[in-house]
Known about the structure:
Helices cover 39% and strands 21% of the residues. The chain contains ten helices and ten strands.
Amino acid sequence: MSYTIIRPKDRREWLRHRESGIGSSEVGTILGLNPxxxxxxxWRRKKGLDAPKEENFAMRAGxxxxxAVSLFYRDETGKEIIKASAGDWLIxxxxxxxxxxxxxxxxxxxxRPKSDRNKGILECKTTQxxxxxxxxxxxxxCQLQYQLGVAELEQGAIAWLTMGREFGYRDLAFDKEFYxxxxxxxxxxxxxxxxxGIEPLAINVDDVLLKNPRHxxxxxxxxxxxxxxxxxxxxxxxxxxxxxxxxxxxxxxFGEAPAKVKIIFTPGPxxxxxxxxxxxx
Length: 281
């Protein structure tokens, strides 16, 4: 095995371990497939620019209902859920310690001897949306494939409870080609963006609002605009600005004040094109 299993003493310690790498719920974000978060927002959170996500009611309910979803899966398939897989634990890749996953549950693969190699991973979901088992949400698929790859397992399943009324599931085999593609993207994100500090592109309005506005000062309005563009890493032609305070010359050094402007960066077509190209390379 090329992984280590970590069993934290409590949920707080488990959350700290999760933040030390890239978890399975974050892979879809890196690939641009998560409708709830962008790579830029994830980068800000990982760099400590924004506070970690606080567990809300829906997240807590989903955690509590993992038991129910796993029992429904057991009843539908006859597969034995491994009781010891409940709780907060992690599997960490030994070569790349930022690859870390926390399966919701594992199960024994029927017809095989019970061993570490003959387990499957069950990803448990509770949702308010209708789910088509033949067209699963893409970030769900990424999540399970990432878990299977890091855990070095061959089989898994996604099971979901919709609005507390409908249950569904889909069994899935490990797709090594897709996993290798994901790991290339995760490596790039971790090495270039997290370790290297390179900001991912802003790809939606929320990203732009996070990056801006910025109040920048300079001796003149032009200098302030130039300073703001430099902070954003773009040419001055790529920003618009609003004068907050005009510069004051003062008299004999008294009352002198710099210009203050609000800088706003607007992504152009080339930014979207570059973001799309990166998903293909």
